[in-house]
Structure formats: C-alpha cells, structure tokens
Amino acid sequence: MEKQNLICLPGQRLSLCDKTHTSGKGTYDRRGYIYSNISGIVDVVIKDGIKILEVHSPGLQTIVPAQGDVVTAQISIITQQYCKCYIKCIGDKILRRHFKAILRREDIKATEKDKIDVYKSFKPGDIILARVLPITEAHNYQLSTAENELGVAVAYSEHGHPMIPISWTEMQCIKTYVKEPRKVAKLIPENIHEDLIARLSETTTKV
Amino acid sequence: MLILSSEKTDNPARIERTYYLISENIRIDGREREDYRPMEIETDVVSHAFGSSRLRLANTDVLVAVKIEVDAPYPERPLEGKLEFFVDCSANATPEFEGRGGEELAVELSNCLSSAYRSEEVFNLKKLCIMKGRKCWKLYVDILLLEVGGNLFDAVSIAVKAALWNTQIPKIKSINVDGSNIDIQVCDDIFSCTKLDVTGAPLMVTVCKIGDKCIVDPNAAEEQCSVGAVVVAVSRGNICTISQTGTGSFHPDTFKSCLILGISVAQRLEDSLTETLGEIKANQDVGFLK
Amino acid sequence: MPQKIQMRLASNRVDTSVVINRDIPAIYTPGQIISNQNEFLRGHGTYEENGQLKASVAGVREKVDILISVRPLKSRYHGKVGDVVVGRIIEVQQKRWKVNTNSILDSVLLISSVNLPGGELRRRSAEDEHMMRKYLQEGDLISAEVQSVYSDGSLSLHTRSLKYGKLGQGVLVKVFPSLIKISKTHFHNLSIGVSLILGTNGFIWICPIINNTEENVGGFVQNLEEVVPKSIRATMARIRNCILALAQSKVMLFDSSITYAYEESTKYTLAELLLPEVMADVALSTQQKLILSETE
Amino acid sequence: MPVDHKRINAPESAVPYKLFTKLNTESLKEQYQKAIRDGIRVDGRKPSEHRKIFLKTGIVAHAKGSAYIEQGNTKVVTSVFDPREIPNRTDYCLKGEIYCEFKFAPFSCPKRRLHQQDSQEKECSAIMKKALEAVVCREEFPNFQVDVYALVLHNDGSALSAAVTAAGVALASAGIPMFDIITSSTLAIQGEHSLFDPNFREELLSEIAIEKEHGVVILCVTSTHQQISHFHQTGNLQLNTITQSIDTLHNTCKEIVPVVQKCLVKSVLSVISES
Amino acid sequence: MDEQFRILHPIKYYRDHINNHIRPDGRELNKFRPVLVNIGSINTSDGSALAKVGDTTVICGIKAELCSPKVESPDQGFLIPNVELPPLCSSKFKPGPPSEEAQVVTQLLADIVKNSKCFDLKQLCICHEKLVWCLFADLICISYDGSLMDACVIALMGALKSVQLPLVDYDPAIDNKLVNEEQKNFVNIQGIPICTTFSMFDKNILYDPTQEEENLSSCTFNVVLMEDKLCSVHKPGGTPISEQNLMECIEVSKQRTNTICELIDIALKKNKT
User: Could you tell me which of E143, B152, A141 has the C-alpha nearest to residue D77?
Assistant: First the structure.
C-alpha cells in the first residue's frame, strides 16, 4: 500500500499529541493521543513546523454548515425583508440533505445598506454563493452576500434562458438580451468551479 | 402575544458543572457520596385503590396506586397472574413533561420496572392465579409523578414496593364453572384479604457518575451535571435489572464498583423501608394534603 | 461508615413554622372585600365589584394614600429599576441575550449593556455580535442590575459595573423573591470565607471569596482549573443548607439572618442539616436571635 | 381498537396456527436440558462460542450509510441518514441528537409482529440510542439529529446486539464523526450455564426462572477506549455472576472488532477504487 | 464537479445525458437493471422471498394464521398484502403511519393479485363457513431506488410460491383444531404476474427508472403481464403517451416477464435443495 493511502477507522490511535503533532480535521485528542474520528485516509499537513494530522473520508462526508463557510444555495422565496434559500453545497462538498437558510436584506451588500432592495438583488431559482453567519437560532442558518465574491453565480431570465453578468448589479439574458438587476458575484475559482458555471450557463439544445 | 418565561430545569453551564465535580467527598448540599436525603413516606392514601403509597424525597414526589381486576392469563403462561406498570408524567411535575415531553421517561421507567419485576424469583406471579389458564388477578400499578427533583428511579421503586406492601387482594369465596362461563364470588368481608409477599420486590438505586466519581441519590442539579448513571435493581441481595441512563460511558472497573455501591445502598434502603413500614399502625388516618 | 437512610412516616412530619409573638398582618383571600368605601384607587391584586374593592390574589394589603393594592404572598419576581438580580442565560439572540430571572417574562440583556473584554471604552462592532456566544452562552449565570422595565413588565438588565458579570464556580439556591430583604448591598463577603449574592429575584449565589478583583474584567474571565478547597466547600454547603432552612420556615434572608443561622447550625453536622427537625430548629433559634438583636 | 385505514386489514379473529400444534408436555427444565446437552448446544456450538458474523455495508442505496449483519440466522439491516432538523425543537442545543428506531419485521419472529412499535421495540430503540450516543461526536452537528434505523428481518436471538454492532458500522460508513468503534454481545444465563450469543430459544428460556439464577445480559463496548457504552440486564443474578459476565462479554465484544474493522476498511477501499 | 452540477440543476444534467442516449448510471435508455431473486431465507415465516431490481430491494415474508371466513365468501381464505416503506429505506419517508405512496403501492399490489387471478383463495379453505387460512404477506422495502412495483410483485410471487401450509384436523362440532406440522403442502399458483415500470423524460421512454429518474420524469407508468397476457396498465396522470409507445412497452415487458419467471423458478429450486 502506498504511504499516502493509510486507511484508518474511528477510534484508531494515530500518534502522540505533543508540541509537534496536533489534531486536525477528522481527528480528536484525548489523554495525550490523537485518534481518528472517521474512517478514511490519513493525511499529514505540515504548517509552521507543526504536523497537523487529518483524516479525509473518501466518500461523501457528513458535514453541516458552520460559521464562516462559503456555501452554494438556491433562492426559494423572496420578500421585502429577506429571502429564503436552501444550502446545497458547502465549499465543494455537496449535501444530500439541503439545509434551510435565510438571507436578510441588510446582509445582501456591505455598503449602502439602506438602499438595498431584495427584489432587485435576487429571484427565486437563482444560485448564489454566500457566507454562513454565526448561528443564533437553531434550524435557521443566516447567510450574507456582503462581499464582492459573493452573490448570484447563476441565474436564468424570465424566459428561462441563462444570463451573463454585465456589471456588479446587472445580468443579461443571452437570448433575449433583456437586462435584469442582480447582486452579482465576482466569481473566483476558489469558491466555484469554472466548468460548472459554463455548464450551467450553456443553452440546451432542445430535442 | 406574551411569551412567558420558561420554568424549565436549569441547565448549568460548564463552569458551574466544574464545581459540582467532587474531588473532595463533599457534595453541594453537604452530603457525602453515599448519603441519601431524608424522605417521607405514607401508605393507604388513595381510598378507592387496593393499595397505595406516596413518597417524598426532597423535591421528588411520587404517588402510586394499585388497582386489581380479574383477567384471563396469557395463553403461554397459564399459571401466572399479570402485573402491569403505568407511569404518568404529569405536566404538573415539570414543564418539560408538557405535551408528549414525558413520554420517553415514562416508557423508560415502566420498562425498567417491568423488567425488574419479571423474574419469578423476584415477584411470584403464580400467587395471582385464580384458575389455571382461565382466570387470574391482574395488578395495575399506576405511578403518578407529582414533582420531579432528581433520583426518580429510586423514589418510584420505593413507592411501588410500599404500595404493593399495602395492597390487599380479596379472598375468593367460590368459583362456579359453567361451560365457558366462570363465575367468581369474592368474599364480602373487607378484613379477609390476603397481602402480597413483597420481600423480594426490587429497590432501584441510581448510581450517578459525576466527573470520575460515583454518587447515589443525585439531586436535580447533580443529575444535570452527570454524564450518565447506572440503575441497579436489587432484590434480596441479587441484581434483577441493570440499566443505564444518560449518554455517558463507563470503564468496566468503574461500572463494577457502581454495582457494588448500588447493592450496598439498596440494602440500607431496604432496612429503612422495612423499619418505617413496620411503624405504620392500622387505620391510621393521614392524608398527604395534611 | 455511611449514614443510616432517614425515612419517616408522613404522620410524624415536623411543623416548620417559627412565628413567635409577632403581629401577623391580615391576609386577604381572593374575593374578600378590602374596602366598602368608594374612596380608593384600585391597585395591583384587586378588583372592583358593586362599588366594593376586593382582593384578586391571596396576600397582604398595602396602602399608599388612597391607592390600595394586595401584595401576593407567593409570586414571581416583579423587578424594579436598580434591583440586583442573578439570572441564567437561556437564549442567545441577535444583539441580545434572554435571561431567566424568575420573572413572568424573560428578561433581556442587550449587547450594548455589557462591558465587553478589553476595557470599558470600546465600540461594539458587528464582530462582537457574531461572538456573542463566546461571551455568554446558554446556561451561564450572571449577576446584573435592572436597568429599565418595559411596558409589558419585562426587564432590561445591565452588567456595566465590575461587580456584575458572569459567575464562576459556586452554588445557586432558589427561594421566593419575597423572602429577600431589600438592603443597601446585596453583595456580601462573609468572614467565614464565602461570598454571597442575594438576588432580589430570589436567586442566591454562593461562591468562594474572590481575592483579586483586578483580573475580573467585566466578569468574563473564569478559572475552570481552580479547585475549591474542602473546608470552603463545607462552609458553602452549610450556608446553602442554612438558607434553605430559613426559607422553609419563611424567615427573611439578609446578611445577619444568614450569619446567625450559620452560627446556630454549627452544633449540627452538615448532613444533619437536611433533616426537617434540624432545619426547623436552626430557623427557630435564628429567629429568636434576630428578635433579640432588634430589641437591643 | 380503531381500524387502520392506511393498511389492508385482516379479519380480527386470526390466530397463529402454532397454538394448535401438539402440546409440548415437557417441563421447562427438560426443555432447557434439551437445548444444551453435554455442554453442546442445539446448533452444535460450545457455550462460549459466538456465531459467525457476516457484515456488509452499502446495501441501502440512498441512505448515507448502511450495514447488514448476519449472525447465524439473525439478520438485521441498519441505515443512517444525513443530519436533519430536530422536529418540535426550537431552542439551541450544543450537541446533536441521535434518533433510533428499532423494529422487528412482522415475519421475523415465531409470533407475528404488528406494524406499530410495541413496548419491547421501544425499549430496544432506547438502548440503541444510549449505546450509540456515547460513541458519536455529537458536538460536530449541533441542533441536528442523525436518524438511525434498524430492521430485524429474522430474529434468532441476540438481535439487539447485532443491531448495535451493525448500527455502529453504518454510522462509520456514513462518515459520521465517531469516537470509537462499537460492538455488542449478548449472554444468556440459566443456573451454571452461560450461553454466549444465544439463539431465540435459548434467550427465551433464560428469561424464565428455571434455576434460582437466570437472566439475559447485553453489553455494548467501545473498542479503543474500552468503555461500556451500555449495559442491560434482566432476570435475577448475583453480583459475582454479573461482574464475571462483564469480563467475558467484553472479550467476546473484542473478538467481533476485527470483523467490523475488516468490513469498514473494505468499504473505504471500495469508495477509493470508485473515485 | 459533476455531482455539484447534478444537484444544482438536475433536469439539465439529465437532459445532457439523455441527448447522448445514455443515462447517468451508465445504462442505455432501453436497458433494464439486473434482477436478483432469493427465496426462503427466513425460516420464522411460512414463505419468504427477497427481490432486487437494481438498487431497489424488497423483502416479503408470509405468515399463515387461522381464522373464520367472511359470511359473504364462506369458502375463501384471505391473502393480505401490505407494503411497508420504512424510513430505513430512503430519506424520503418519515417515521409514523404508512405514507401515501405505501398505501398506493399496497392497494395496487392487492389489485394485481386479485385481478390477475393468479392465486385462488378457495384453496385456503379448511372447513366451509368455519375455518380458513389467512396469509399475511408483509412486504418491506429495504432499499428504495425506483421501480418499486416491479420488485414488490416479484417478492410477493416468490414468497407465495414457497409457502407451505401444515395439515389441519378440524372438528366443527366441538371447534377443535389440531395442526400437524410434520405434513406440509405447497399452495397452488395459477400464474406469475410480472410488473414493469417505465418513465417518460421529455419524449424518451426510460425503462426501469431509478428514483431520481422517476422524480424528474413527466410521467411514470407500469404494465403488468401474466404469461403473455396483459393484466393491467397503471398510469396515474402525467403527460399522455402515444399508443405506439405503449404497445412498444408492452412488447418489451413480455420478453422481460419470461426471464423473470425463469429467475423465480431457479431461485425456488435453489431453495428446495
């Protein structure tokens, strides 16, 4: 077996927990040792001379959104005060079960907060990138798009055609050339796969 | 709409929990680990029941009533009577029981009781048989939690034992069998009743793990701070049921010491209960609303 | 050798009342006529029927000029501005915490009413809002002062003083709010090495005396590792049991009544203090001592 | 009883035909002696011998994790799903919850089981929940609950133990963070006989007081940290018997661990080869 | 990346695949998933079978009990099929009483057995007006991935084929029953109905759809055949299908029916040995 394919199981002791070894993702420490949390492959990340032990699960990980995560969500309902959406991916990890989230009016943009209009920022069905705010209520994640890199990633026009961004606040339908207002995200590869956007935005050839 | 302040039991924060951890053998109310709080007991409190008792252990208050009916035995156990436990978690006891909140606890309690009373060595159901395969006595033990202040399992088991001790089973005068009809005549004389044999009736002791120490008779706050507890049901020095409550885990050695502690405390409880029940004079007129 | 388990019959119950030759004020019951005259102002706990004023709760009559009200014997805490309270955080919300203070409605502690770590003069940023659970989370106990009372009767608290803030290791005892005697200070450092906060809301906090107040910045610093020595634990347990004994016999709680009770209790062991007759005895002798000291 | 409109109902008078077979006239003692003769049990095992375990993951296609266990004739399917909101719960909780549902299939036991959960099944669900709570890192998913379901297809004794072991495997294969691997084992005691991993009949006979000492003991243990995550006992036993059975059951549980590990490694390898 | 696309825009994802005449699981549009049948592995039941159609798994156990017949049909016994879709099999189902889907499938299954006349209830009669057999056929879905009906019918028929009933001596005069477990007889099955499910996606017909395909399609329907004869077509709403399409589906089902019947026979023989 190759060295990087070291398989471990929950509860397996990985190493001593000392100044040079700390526990990272997928591990925990107890009584001076580092143990694995999940079944997966051991990974050692060296940072500032400290070995961080991590375990990565090869399949779908069971994760829930946490404060600070960038998530991909789909807008479902919009009102004057907020819009409701479903979180579908956390980073590049997809979720089997979608989590309810809410994006308040004042969290849409970082500037000119009093001029924000929810209806001019999103439409139901839009796919957005957003950051998870601290969790104050159980069952309801709060999101924020108040960053340049966050906002609408993929949207379709009224007629169901894909739109492309033309400014920070507008997107244009590639078929009808109708412009619609949106809180547009400046996409950076770190947050979303370029191919994905390309595939979502291309028109389907009807059969 | 006004949202009223909740009265739910306190959930102490981590810092407070730290204080509850007992490194020294002294608990927040000054007791040592094996000490029990004083309690108050009375029997014959429900006049229309065949037997009843009420127990108050600090803030925990339990009322038990026993009802008797004639029933047909289970086809697979023709020689035995029936014993059924029902726990009612009244919302009066704690707001957490509102709606279906107490259901889980009620099921846990009644399951624990019925499994503790299941063995013939503990409680002989054959004594409740009237006629083999046809008729038997069925005892309904109804347990009502009036107030919850910790250590429910112990309190309930003591109250149940006292109620069964107090239970009077009518004597049978005659049995007439006519085909599939059975006619049972019960003695009219209220004094000619038989008492149940409850010497083997189990007492349950909750041994609670706080930090790495074990205590008995936890109060509500101590229960909140504990990661888990072992409930040991003891009958005549033997263990008839062990169950765990809470979410924690035990090292096998800790677990064994819990069992030893449980048995010794159960013996002390048994002694006190026998002594106290012995003090009861017949026809004493005491109501718990006194 | 473990103690014998105390089990008694209800017929042998101990009488816990300690009233000695004192004027007991008239107690009104709901529906009882308080006044037949028309000259009155209807206060709390009363209602008007056929020109008569009647009590709607069981309690004692209080009269201020022509305003007549009945103060219930047993009630939740009704806060007044300036009261010292002890409360438990039950919910973390946006910009505020919900606190259980034994009132009818949950009290609130706004993030703007607390001293955040890093000194008093600090602007509260959006970051702080996001860090709220780091400062105080569900289950934490705080001491605070009532800042204002909202129109619905719920309280707004503040901890903007060094003596208020998060509480550390110690024991919480709950009694009826009416048993707490209002006095100049509700913070007491007893000479026996125990510190007391008598919350006007009936929540009493008992903890070891904290020596260095310098470190205590707004009460967000806690020492989890510190082990309370056995002798202090014993004293704290004794104080707790004494307070409960006094509360059971309805003796007012304030620094001297608690100190007297502590002195009286020393003839018993700690565990004995849980017995009803011992509790009644401690309460009774405390009451006598109090009367003596009053007459002196 | 109210009519169940959501199922097809059978006539109410239906009774199992087993009630009308020739009566077994043997006393319970004789029956027990038949079950274990000269230290050999009906299925040819020694008293301390565990049945062979077959474990497989991934049999429920759309579950997050699943496991199927075969322990002799006992067959149990378990499945685990993604964390979801805790129903009827609005206050914040720092630790996630585990919801367990243990069910016997209607045809799994000699007597037909009903569709609704009965009290035994509820008790088993509660035991499973407690056993698993101690091994799952619940603080990793605050405010959520993870659903664990166990369905017994064929009950030939020790079904609860099999379900706990399988549920542990299902949780691990679902990628739910866990402190440890959990295994469980059952012991049936009657007098001087202690039968490991009892079958249905042995389990049934040990519930009845034939000798003074009798009972059924279930132990769930975590493998690395060697902690008892749940212990359950019924019957009437002496302290000594119980402490001994803890030790012996602990060893049996340890013997199951390699089977579980093998199965989990296999499932990790299969996922790697897929991707 | 592919998986992300699938979750964000499933319809488009499918359309892209279908346009290339291939389904996401690698099948062509007109291919069935493998079928697996296992009979008689649960000996606490009087007859049992497990059917796997792709990733859909259904297990059926039959338990026989004795009861008195209905007054209006004194010479008929009972066959009570109930399909259970427990939360165990898919996140789609929640704990509690049977879901709507479970009720529909149960009723459909009962109708198929009744209308195809594959099982004669008269053979369950022991004593006219007095005593009959009641067969409880409980079907439990263990893994749910579309085409549930296909698996249910196979499991039920497989289990029925393996049912053996003991002889009963009945004395109506004193209502005395004696069951002789030593002598057991198989029940008679007149034929094996087989169900085949199809889905419509855009204008394509997908054979044996998975759960995801069923959800995305505009209509799902199934065809039941017994030995080359059409028993029923069940098409609950959705977009209309052309007669030509339907005929094509029936034709395909015919071929599949024969292979599945063979599978059941093989499984049965395996069980007997």
Answer: E143
CB nearest to C171's CB, from B3, B28, B41: B28
Are A96 and A145 part of one and the same domain?
yes
CB distance E16–A204 less than 8 Å?
A: yes
Spatial distance between the Cα atoms of C275 and C279, rounded to a whole number of angstroms? 6
> Which residues, other chains included, contact E9 with Cβ-Cβ below 8 Å and sequence gap of 6+?
A200
Do A75 and A100 fall within a single domain?
A: yes
**pLDDT, tens digit (0-9, with 9 covering 90-100), for A93-127:** 888 788 889 988 888 888 777 788 888 888 888 88
pLDDT class for E134, splitting at 50, 70, 90? very high
The sign of the dihedral angle between the CA atoms of E89, E91, E95, E101 is negative
Contact E150, E185 (CB under 8 A): no
Take residue E136 and report the two structure tokens written for it: 């409880």
Taking CB atoms and an 8 Å cutoff, what residues of chain A touch E202?
A: 207
Residue A13 touches partner D, C-beta closer than 8 Å: yes
Whether the predicted pLDDT of E35 surpasses 90? yes
- The verdict on A30 touching D (C-beta cutoff 8 Å) is yes
Burial of D208 (C-beta count, 10 Å sphere; 0-12/13-18/19+): middle
pTM of the model: 0.88
Nearest CA in chain B to C208: B19
Indicate if A49 and A93 belong to the same structural domain.
no
What rounded mean pLDDT belongs to chain D? 89
Domains of chain C: 26-72 (2.40.50.100)
| C187-189/C194-198 β-pairing | antiparallel
Our count of domains for chain A comes to: 2
- Check whether E154 has a pLDDT greater than 90: yes
C-facing residues of A in 65-94 (CB < 8 A) are 67
- Asked if residue E123 has pLDDT above 60, the reply is yes
Decide if D77 and E84 are in contact by the 8 Å CB cutoff: no
pLDDT tens across E54-92, in order? 999 999 999 999 998 988 888 999 999 999 999 999 988
pLDDT-based confidence at B178, cuts 50/70/90? Answer: confident
Domain presence at residue D33: no
Give the confidence band of D100 by pLDDT, cuts at 50, 70, 90: very high
Question: Are both A35 and A101 inside the same structural domain?
Answer: no
Q: Which is more confident, D258 or B75?
A: D258
Enter the ipTM: 0.86
Q: Rounded to 5 degrees, what angle do the CA atoms A23, A27, A31 make? A: 70
Q: Are E127 and E170 in contact (CB under 8 A)?
A: yes
Q: Name chain C contacts of D91, Cβ cutoff 8 Å.
A: 90-91, 138
| pLDDT tier at E139, thresholds 50, 70, 90 | very high
Structural domains of chain B ordered from first start:
25-279 (3.30.230.70)
What is the rounded distance in angstroms from the CA atom of residue E71 to the CA atom of residue E129? Answer: 7
Tell me the three state secondary structure of residue A115.
helix
Average pLDDT over residues B211-225: 84
Distance from C-alpha of B262 to C-alpha of B244, rounded to nearest angstrom? 13
The nearest CA of chain E is from the CA of D30 a distance in Å of: 22
How far off is chain E from A144, nearest CA to CA, in Å?
Answer: 20
E170 has a chain D CB within 8 A of its CB: no
Inside any domain, residue E7: no
User: Do A48 and A110 fall into the same domain?
Assistant: no
Number of domains composing chain D? 1
Instruction: Read off the CATH number of the domain in which E162 is found.
Output: 3.30.230.70
Task: Enumerate residue ranges in chain C where pLDDT < 70.
Answer: 1-2, 18-23, 117-130, 210-226
The residue range of the domain holding E213 is: 31-272
Q: Does A25 lie in the same domain as A124?
A: no
What does the pLDDT read at residue B268?
92
B-facing residues of D in 183-242 (CB < 8 A) are: 207-209, 212-215, 222, 225-239, 242
